[in-house]
Amino acid sequence: MKRSVAIFLTLGLFGCQQDKLPCPYECTEAANASKKLLIIGLDGCRTDAFQIASTPIMDSLAMAGRLYTHVNRGPHTVSAPGWAALLTGVWSNKHGVTSNSYSESNFETYPDLFSRLKEQFPCKRMYYVNSHPIVSEGMLAAADHGVVTGDDGEATSDAIEQLMMCRPDIMFVHLNDIDHEGHDTDFDPDNEKYLAEIEDCDRQIGAMIRAFKETFPTQEHLVFITTDHGGEGGGHSNRDDDPNVTHVFMIGSTNTGVIWQDTVAEQVDLYPSVLRFFEVPFDSTWALDGKPLLQ
After folding, report:
1. 36: nearest Cα among 204, 213, 203
2. Residue 21 pLDDT > 90
3. Whole-angstrom distance, CA of residue 170 vs CA of residue 146
4. β-pair type (126-130, 145-148)
5. Per CATH, which fold does 26-257+266-282 belong to?
6. Rounded to the nearest 5 degrees, what angle is found at the Cα of 294, between the Cα atoms of 289 and 295?
7. Whose CB has fewer CB within 10 Å in the chain, the N or C terminal residue?
8. Got the DSSP string for 5-62?
9. DSSP letter for each residue of 122-147
10. Distance between CA atoms of 157 and 20, rounded to whole angstroms?
């Protein structure tokens, strides 16, 4: 476990290759560039443990927006189905992912969020930084740039670098160390090591949020922080009836005073919420299962 991770920039190490981006800056400006999105996924973060841990950064984001607890994450309690529900806006009976394999996925019919937004805004700059390939090996192929680091500290440093150097319109960051600690020492709110990992991720989120705000001081921001599943003991597989696994949390926060729906949220709600933020007209043929959480 990386209890205290130093956050630093390694400029040029992962370079965004600005000259190789597919669209000129003027085109990006014309494509509603006043709106910026940052999604941070915390793999395996159990809700009651998150509520006990000291997380001042996530708490402040929730105060500025909305914290949803008891968020339904649906069946098949491994990682890929959870991330697929979040990033497609539909449940597994539609997106087809029921295990940590994407071999049966139906993303041509139900495209992931990056694909949908790239279709709507071809010139938006989309980036991802993941510390585990579980998300990007099946989704996010429409990104202009992506990195899998294998380490949360490196993922955080690279996300900060990409924000400051490349100024992406849309960024997805996946941090995996909470899940790793849960498997090693138990997903348990009484487990000090598990809580310490959540607190370490909160510090890393703080570094990313500072870079996000400094890079885009005048733009409209939407930030989502969420998780794919909880856990019990040393695992989370085949726990469809365990609320400590299936009830997760989601934080939505903006800098515009948007009103958030007072509702019971589900994982599939993130996708339509992002579409509403970017003012994308809903098409009934998309057959989304989620609802926008932004009024």
Report:
1. 213
2. no
3. 12
4. parallel
5. Alkaline Phosphatase, subunit A (3.40.720)
6. 110
7. C
8. PPP---TTTS---GGG-SS-HHHHHHTTTTEEEEEEEETT--HHHHHHS--HHHHHHH
9. TT--EEEEESSTTTTTTS-TT-SEEE
10. 22
Place of tokens 């941090």: 175
Q: pTM (2 decimals)?
A: 0.91
The amino acid at 166? C
Tokens encoding 159: 């996300």
Q: What is the pLDDT of residues 59-90, one digit of tens each?
A: 999 999 999 999 999 998 899 999 999 999 99
Pairing of strands 220-226, 247-254: antiparallel
The radius of gyration computed from the CA coordinates of the chain, to the nearest angstrom, equals 18
- 205 contacts: CB under 8 Å, gap ≥ 6: 40, 57, 58, 225
Euclidean distance between the first and final Cα of the chain, in Å?
Answer: 40
Q: What digits encode the pLDDT tens for the residues 240-292? A: 777 888 789 999 999 998 999 999 999 999 999 999 999 999 999 999 999 99
Strand order across the beta sheet in which 220-226 lies: 65-72, 247-254, 220-226, 35-42, 170-175, 126-130, 145-148
Residue 245 contacts by C-beta under 8 Å, 6 or more apart in sequence?
46, 73, 77, 229, 230, 231, 232, 236, 239
Q: Identify residue 211 by its one-letter amino acid code.
A: A
Helix axes 192-215, 152-166, angle to 10 degrees: 10
Q: Quick one: how many helices (H) and strands (E) in the chain?
A: 11, 7
Distance (Å, whole) CA 143 – CA 152: 20
* Element of type H or E holding 288: none
Q: If DSSP codes are grouped into helix, strand and coil, which group holds residue 266?
A: strand
Q: Which of 231, 122, 111 is nearest to 180 (CA)?
A: 231
Place of tokens 């993303």: 107
